[in-house]
Amino acid sequence: MAYTLGERIREKRESLGLSQQELGNIFNPIVKRASISRWESDTSNPEIEKLPILARKFKTTIDWLVTGESRKDKSAKIEDDYYKNLPKLHKIVDKNNDLKNKNSLTNDDLKTIDSTLEASAIALLGGLSKPSKKESEAQKTA
């Protein structure tokens, strides 16, 4: 498995039997072979507008090109986390129902509820990641 963006580009280009120049020819304007070589050696990166073109040519996703993970991989992890926490969540709900006291939840219980609900929300949103605190504040001020 390729670990860097450059290694993933080289892996996909070679699997299609393309030379660096042939890959460069898919762009308009044409990208020089030397630029493709720099991408593959991780001395430079393709411009962001070139990523969708590469992803289409390689029949993959931009996510995979950039991170090495696909949405399917992320979705599987989210689903695993959800099902791992679900039994804990049921115990917490049962415990709370038994005690009929809102103060009966521990901090660990609240963390489990929070992480399970977050995983559920992420799954419902199609595997989108939670925005950073900085991104959230920027969205509030926009």
Whole-number tally of structural domains: 2
In the predicted model, the low-confidence regions spanning at least 5 consecutive residues are 127-132, 138-142
Number of helices: 8
Mean of residue pLDDT values? 78
Indicate the proportion of strand residues: under 5%
Q: How would you sum up the global shape?
A: rod-shaped
**Estimated helix fraction:** 55-70%
Rg measurement, Å: 22 Å
Secondary structure: number of strands: 0
What is the SS-derived class? mainly alpha
The level-1 CATH class of the largest domain: Mainly Alpha
Topology:
Elements (H helix, E strand, L loop, with lengths): L4 H11 L4 H5 L8 H8 L10 H8 L3 H6 L3 H29 L7 H18 L8 H9 L1
Helix pairs in contact: 6-7
Describe the fold and architecture:
- The structure is a single chain.
- With 142 residues, the chain is mainly alpha-helical.
- It has 2 domains: 63 residues, Orthogonal Bundle (434 Repressor (Amino-terminal Domain)), CATH 1.10.260; 60 residues.
- Helices cover 66% and strands 0% of the residues.
- α6 packs across α7.
- The longest helix has 29 residues.
